[in-house]
Amino acid sequence: MSDHVAGAVLVLNAGSSSLKYQLVHPDTEVVVAEGIAERIGDHDGSITHEQDGEKTTETLELPDHLTAIRRVRELFASGGIDLASAGLSAVGHRVVHGGRTFYHPTLIDDHVIGEIRRISSLAPLHNPANLTGIEAAREMLPDVPSVAVFDTAFFHGLPEAAATYAIDRGVAKLHAIRRYGFHGTSHQYVSEQVPPLLGKEPSEVHQIVLHLGNGASASAIRGGDPIDTSMGMTPLEGLVMGTRSGDIDPGVVLHLHRVVKLDADQIDALLNKNSGLKGLCGENDFRSVTERIERGDEAAKLAYDVYIHRLRRYIGAYMIDLGRVDAITFTAGVGENAAGVRADALAGLENYGIVVDPDRNAERSRTARRISTDDSAVAVLVVPTNEELAIARQAAEVVGERA
Ligand code: ADP
Fold first, then answer.
1. Which residues line ligand 1 (CB under 6 A)?
2. How far is CA 95 from the centre of its chain?
3. How is the cofactor bound (predicted)?
4. 20 to 30 A from 340, CA-CA: which of 52, 58, 67, 227?
C-alpha cells in the first residue's frame, strides 16, 4: 500500500512547542506528506497534515512531543502509510547547535544524544527541544536510523578572525564562547545552487547569501567556503529579525540588568522574543509590517528602516570581506517574497556593479531566478531555500555510507 514511500526520509524539526515534519524522497525531491504540530505542551494543540494533496487540521491536547509524533504516525496510517514498515531510509533531524563537536551529519546513537545534551548549554532554547524530537522518533521508529544535521555545521571552518570574539581568551576557551553561525543548512543549500545559475565552477564564485525569514542571517562565501556569517555564538547576533534584536551594544544588556533590574531570563525573553520588528512596531510578520507602512504607521516605517539599515551594513561588510562579489542571493520567506526589501537593500549601488531590474524583481515566481539587469556586474538572485530536502539528502547519504 505504501510502496511509493520506500527510501524516503522523514525530516523532523522539533521546536520547543512545535514539530514540523516532511516525508520526502531525497533523489526525486517528491514530497509525500508534510505537516506541523503546534502548541505542544498546551491544552489546545493542533496538527495540520497534508498527504497526497489532502490537507487536514485537527485540534487536540498534545502534552509532549512523543504524543504529537504518535498522532502524526496515525495520520500517516489513515492515509495508507505505515511509517514503521514503509521502508524509510532514515529520519533526519534538524539540530540547532553542534558546538565544536559535530560538523558533519551524524548517525544518532546514545553517545551522540549525550553529546547533543552536553552542548545544550550553548543553545538552551533549541537543543533540548531538538532532543525531544529525536527521542520521540527513536521510540516510535526504533528500526529506522536517525541522523542529526546541525545548523552550525556549514560554518565550522570559519576563519579564526571571523569566529573569535575579542574578549578574554581564557574565558572564551573555557566556556566555548566563539562565533558558530546558524541557518547553515540553508546557506549551504542556497549557495550550492548559485554557481550553476552563473555557469561557473563553485571554486570560482564569491557570493553573499541573505537568508531573510522570521530568523535572518547573512553569509559571505568564497569558493564554497564560508568566510563570515552574521549569527554568532547564538542565533541572536546579526541582522534585525522578526522577534530578535540582532546586533546590540553588550552594554545595553548590562544596563537592563543593573538599572532596569531584569534578570537573565527576562533579558533573554526581551531580546529573543520581544525585539526586532515585533519590538519596534508590535508585528513580527513582514506582511503585516508592510501593510501598516502602507497605512502610514510610523512605528512600522521605523522598524522597516532599521531592518534595511542593518541589512545594508552587512552587505557592505561582506563585499569588502570578499573583495569581489559575483552574486548576492535572497532566500527564505522575506527574501523570496518581499520585492521591496530586495530593492531597498541594494538601492543606489550601481557604482559597485549592482543593478536590480525592477520588472524582474517584481515578478512572482517559486523558482530560482536572476533579478539583476543583464549588464549588472554582480548577479542578484532569488533562490528558494529547502532545508527539509537538504536535511533529507544529508541523512540519506550518511545511511548510504553505512550500508
Ligand atoms: P522561518 O524563519 O519561520 O522559517 P520563513 O522563511 O517562513 O520563516 O519566513 C517567514 C517570514 O516571511 C514572515 O515574516 C512572513 O511575513 C514573510 N513572508 C512570507 N510571505 C511573504 C510575502 N509574500 N511578502 C512579504 N513577506 C512574506
1. 213-215, 242, 285-287, 332-334, 337-338
2. 11
3. Mg(2+). Can also accept Mn(2+).
4. 227
Residue 383 Cα to ligand 1 midpoint, Å, equals 14
DSSP conformation letters of 297-338: -HHHHHHHHHHHHHHHHHHHHHHHHHSS-SEEEEEHHHHHH-
Question: Which uninterrupted H or E stretch holds 355?
Answer: none
Give, in order, the Cα–Cα distances in Å from 294 to each of 115, 278, 287, 288, 343. 49, 17, 11, 10, 17
- H-only helix segments in 65-109: 65-78
Question: In angstroms, rounded to a whole number, what is the distance separating the alpha carbons of residues 331 and 333?
Answer: 7
Distance (angstroms) between ligand 1 centre and the Cα of 336 equals 8
Measured distance CA(62)–CA(365) in Å, rounded:
37
**CA–CA separation, 403 and 394 (whole Å):** 14
Nearest to 189 by CA among 6, 394, 23: 394
Q: What is the pLDDT of residues 183-202, one digit of tens each?
A: 999 999 999 999 999 999 99
Cell numbers that stand for 359 in this block: 520588472
Confidence of residue 2 (pLDDT cuts 50, 70, 90): low
Q: What is the dihedral of CA 130, 132, 134, 138, to 10 degrees?
A: 180
Q: Which residue reads 540519506 in cell numbers?
A: 396
Domains, the chain, ordered by start: 9-150 (3.30.420.40), 200-387 (3.30.420.40)
Query: Has residue 91 got a pLDDT over 70?
Result: yes
Spatial separation of the C-alpha atoms in residues 246 and 240, rounded to whole Å: 5
pLDDT digits (tens, 9 = 90+) for 297-335: 999 999 999 999 999 999 999 999 999 999 999 999 999
- Longest Cα separation, the chain: 64
Active site residue 168: no
What is the pTM assigned to this prediction?
0.95
Q: Around Cβ 313, how many Cβ atoms within 10 Å?
A: 14
Place of cell 512547542: 17
pLDDT band of residue 1 (cuts 50, 70, 90) is very low
